[in-house]
Amino acid sequence: MSSEEIRKQILRLLQRNARISHQAIGERLQISEVAVAAAIHDMEANGTIIGYYALVDEERTGTVPVRAMIEVEVQPERDGGFDRIAGLISKFPEVQTVYLVSGRYDLRVEVMGDTLQEVAGFVSSKMAVLDGVKSTTTHFLLKKYKEAGFRLHEEEAYDRLQVSP
Amino acid sequence: MTDSKSHREWVAKHVGCLPRSGIRDFFDIVSTMSDVISLGIGEPDFVTPWAIREATIYALAKGHTGYTSNLGLLALRRTICTYVEENFGVEYDPDKECIVTVGVSEALDLILRAVLNPGDEAIYHEPCYVSYMPSIALTHAVPVPVVTQEGNGFALSAEAVRAKITPRTRLILLSFPNNPTGASLSYAEKEAMARLAVEHDLLLISDEIYEELTYEERCQSIAAFPGMKERTILLNGFSKAHAMTGYRLGYACGPHKLIEAMMKIHQYSMLCACGFVQEAAIEALRNGRRAMLEMKTEYHQRRNVIVKRLNDMGLPCQMPKGAFYAFPRITGTGMTSTQFATRLLNEKKVACVPGAAFGACGEGYIRCAYATAMDQIEIAMERMAEFVKTL
Lengths: 165, 391
Description:
The complex is a heterodimer. By secondary structure, chain A is α+β, with helices and mostly antiparallel strands. Chain A has five helices and six strands, in the order αααβαββαβββ. Chain A is 34% helix and 21% strand. In chain A, strand 5 and strand 6 (150-151) form a beta hairpin. Chain B has two domains: 3-48 and 290-390, Alpha-Beta Complex (Aspartate Aminotransferase, domain 1), CATH 3.90.1150; 66-288, Type I PLP-dependent aspartate aminotransferase-like (Major domain) (Aspartate Aminotransferase, domain 2). Helix content of chain B is 42%, strand content 13%. Chain B contains 14 helices and twelve strands. A seven-stranded mixed β-sheet of chain B has the order 2-8-7-6-5-3-4, with helices on both faces. A three-stranded antiparallel β-sheet of chain B has the order 9-12-11. In chain B, strands 1-10 form a two-stranded parallel ribbon. In chain B, helix 4 (50-61) packs antiparallel against helix 11 and helix 12 (289-312) packs parallel to helix 14. Chain B is globular. The chains are: A alpha+beta, B alpha/beta. Chain A binds chain B through residues 9, 12, 24, 27-30, 158, 160-165, and chain B through 21, 23, 26-27, 30-31, 36, 38, 40-43, 45, 47, 129-131, 179, 297, 301-302, 304-305, 308, 351, 353, 374.
């Protein structure tokens, strides 16, 4: 396997389970633990791997934060297009994700807060008033079904035959 | 007259003397136990990719519930022939040289019944899938096994086959990548086999159901070698690569006359494969490649883990080149494969299949399928290592 292919496979494994051990990765890819550690360290150092986080089913935690997807229409600028506004919005800790998207609006922003009022207030007083923001449309999140490739509500298990040819 | 006596009289002799599959015997024991980790399953642990299931539902929603052409939907046969040409390097005419069947099992049964006369000899290799010997025997032909050896990576040498050829030999049945050994044939081995078939004017049946699940470099199908297309029946299906075992769908590609002969039997015994299942198969071939490769990557990594663990615990195991089975040798434990598998099941609740189920020469080995989730494989390997240590 080329080192490029090895890295691709390591990332594939980490993106499914960031806590997988170096030994387990090594066994799957038939390379040494040392080689796995070196490749991961390298990718962390060069910014390929930005970070690791836990994927949480918040409904089971007792305190479900309020989340909203905000569609933001932006007046693009002669130098830099959407980058300046997107950068500004990204600075707020309330903002979880900022994507530039094609279609009838420009930025898709995910905002998190403790209450509905807090999130609504943040959007109207902090984001909507930014110079260059033409409009915002807020969609509050009601239920999560799937996130980062993981389904949050599993189907009933299906029993296979235990032994078959 | 007792019941059992009357039954014995009703069942035809050649059926009565067929052995039950060794896998079934073992299954009966496993099914009475709970919390068993099974490495005994010869099918993907993945559910059929959703796009394929959705295509099945859509076909049903449209009311496509009738018979199809005996040969199968022309749209599917066209898709199959395009796929075979692109991936296996052999060109077939979807109108005349392809038939859609209920799994490769039916396709194999059809071709054997279509070409074998009573007393003809059919050469196949062991260890192998459990149906080959019985399927040949059911045609009143003579099954002639050739043993493949661990030392040779369980590959089949043309010389070993040559030694079994007699004036009554009619065909050679190949199954690579192999269940249960995971072996596959190199270019040179295929070439030698092709030469032998041409030299002795034999028909060659190639069961390539695991071909997509090949982890090393793939070479062309044996049907693509000179002089082979006109004497080869290529068998393949959707069960393994696309995780569609329960759909029961396979196909055969080969010379028109043979496909026509197979079709005769198929039309009277089966009529056609299930129509909406055929539509799902079109989706699998057209858009299912990405999902298939994703599953293959997973099998590949599981293979690396399970083979290393088996060798580490002292059960020598070749690195399988394809399919999803590891076939470690257990002779060092002093037990037969059935003793080993039975004790492993009773003492550690891990199920694998005794090698003897795949032919007499499978004795001394067990089959561990890695079509099981990685965490389950890891637990099974831990339990198995503990078991081996106690011996």
